[in-house]
Amino acid sequence: MPLTEKVLRSFARSSAIALFASLFAAPAPVQAQQPPKFKVDPAWPLELPNNGILGQVGGLTVDSHDHIWVLQRPGSDTVDELGAAQTPPRSICCFAAKPVLEFDARGKLLNAWGGPGPAAAGYDWPKTEHGIHVDRNDNVWIGGNDPADRMVLKFTRDGRFLMQIGKPSTDPVDSSRTDILGRPAGIDVDEAAHEVYIADGYGNRRIIVFDSETGAFKRLWGAYGNKPSDADLGAYAPGAPPAQQFRTPVHCVHIAQDGFVYVCDRLNNRIQVFSKQGKFVKEFTVRAETLGIGSAWDIAFSRDKGQSFLFVADGEDNVIWTIQRSDGKILGSTGHNGRNAGQFHWIHQIASDSAGNLYTGEVDTGKRIQRFVIAKE
After folding, report:
1. 279, HSE (Cβ side, Cα atoms, 13 Å)
2. Largest CA-CA distance found in the chain, in angstroms, rounded
3. Threshold 0.85, pTM exceeds
4. Domain map of the chain by residue range?
5. Dihedrals phi, psi of 12, to nearest 5 degrees
6. Which CATH architecture has domain 134-374?
7. Cis status of the peptide bond prior to 249, with omega within 30 of 0
């Protein structure tokens, strides 16, 4: 047999063997998606114009244009922080910024508005600003957590008043009432269903849903989908049986792309997941041994197609936890307690933009916003 023919036959046999082996070989393992890692952008944001200064950051969100919205508390500024505003001025800086601030991705302030209006304005501005959400129609929703703040307000993006749900009240806490809220903490809107979800809150122990156009009540629920109760649960204790009700505050509510509703049960150190109708689906514990003011303050979703990860702002441990959304496994953390860039003092709010960068806001004496960009390997 000629040499060339021998070579061809040998090649054919080896190819057939390789094809047969490939048909029955075990599939190659699927590479698990790695969570992003972050580094602080120390130059963000730019300095506020007009000698302005931030107070405590009661709310923070990113809109569909990748603009960053901050709801801050001018009433939390101290006299020495507002030295230029004193009569006579005691120093060259500063003046309190407006409560609602809109920044572009570079950190430049684009717009500022808000605060109590005249008696004819038709709305009751909260005494302690808490929670902000900008829906797909560019409407701005805000709440408040002062003991008398029992309402949520809706404005256009330039501050024109549209609607108020609830009203100021000093009535006793009652999680069954639907005419007033209970010091609401967080807000999200389901545009397709025309519904607004409210984490309610520092007084009540529930999620409550209203029509986002009319303000009509739709439904409410407590932990595990139970009817909410205002009974005193006592102090949280690691290792105790899971509390069947939310502890206050019910601090955040966010709707994932797949329609599941995520709720921050802050002092119970957990995130509970529900259907939009309030049926309990599952829960994640976030560092169960955390005491003090709890670990589950706010969440942001990763921006990959499946929103594979949750980023949890933990204001007691002062880190951002990276959690696998499928099973709640903690994969890592970002930040540390402290006052340097990239550290936190009472991290309170977190949000992500379309590129997956994170934005945070701090309360107590933190009083700042920070940006964390995805670190390139």
Report:
1. 4
2. 109
3. yes
4. 134-374
5. -65, -45
6. 6 Propeller (2.120)
7. yes
